[in-house]
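Appendix B. Chain record.
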Amino acid sequence: MKGGIEVPGAGPVTEAMRPRVLLFTDTYPVAGAEDPFLAVEVRELARRLDLVLIPTTHARGLLSPVPTNVAFEAGLAEYLMSIRGRVAGLLRTLFHPGTYREVASFRSRAIDPRVVTAVVVRGSRMFGTQRWLRRYLVQARPVVAYTWWASSAGYGVARAASDVGIPSVTRIHGYELYPEQDRLGRIPFQESGLARFDAVYSVSRAGAEYLAGEYPSLAPRLHVARLGIDAWPLLGRPSTDGIFRILSCSSCVSIKRVDLLARAMATLLHEHPEVDFRWTHIGAGPTLAGVQQIVNSETGLSERCTFTGVLTGSAVRQLMASEPFDAFVNASSSEGLPVTLMEASSNGMPLIATSVGGNPEIVNDVNGRLIEANPEPHTVADALVQVRLLSLGARDEMRAASFRTWEASFVARNNYSEFARVLEDLWSETT
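Structure tokens predicted for this chain:
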């Protein structure tokens, strides 16, 4: 494996025959949550490919800057939001036998109106995307269809591409991979949807292995293609005043278990009074109020904890580089391979994370502490204390090891250049 991708790429192409790739997103390049992740990949892919960005959810608003050889197509999102598109997708869903197979697969829950509604809504997006894209592709060839999310709309992309005979690929991350991250506890149309792609690229090795175990017939088309990030101009630095500073960054939703972190901080306060610490959490969401309640209920804890709310991607990176931090912690119950761990690694921060999803592919006992998948608060606190009690030299070496992890596996230009070659290879098969 070179860098972040575990399939061989193709050779370079000349400027005169640059491949054309349709890249399907949620909202990007409309400014929003995808910016920190997709902007870097688009920049690197555009060095070798001509891109057309096609959002599937929202296509109106301020557009983020993109390279000059990157175009924007708003038609799909507008179609899916239109009455015509919704009705067409709904009718196709209601009259397709696969819809009823998906509902039946929920077994005892198949009569639950919430399940039926969710399957129909997702099927409508899938079939609506297929309908719009099939017509678009007739005039767009030769292209490669690449969807960043293996979502219901992504399945529609694969179906349309298959209908007209062009190659399609998808990335798959966490929320659209693991059933525990879906509010239904199961992901409708997943097996049949993924089977339509020519290749499925998991952002983690764990994700590819999970899919191969769940759907053995998909194994030949499963690969690993890791995401990557740029280095920040300034490397992070440790505290020098004796305070142990802890950073975490995630949405405040149940699967991220920020409440577990809060209880770990309470344990740290009571069981390790010798450790003078501060905890900063970046992010917001429905569980934040409960997290703050835990913190406020413990005497002496609230003044040690800071909740910044949601920050932009650049603001997160700036905070990591400008303020001293001594450990980055992730306590999620399920993960793909978190970009926040890559960011902390690129800043040379010791990493502490639960052994779920792709976390073990970036966290180890050399660059931090990998803890059990379902830890008690004292387990998280003990891992933090272990890092705190290391000698200064050992902590410096841990920081250096964390940076080397990013350098070896998560450099944006390396990973996305290799992925561009894979897309080139697929495109060459269409010409």
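Further analysis of this model is presented in Appendix C.
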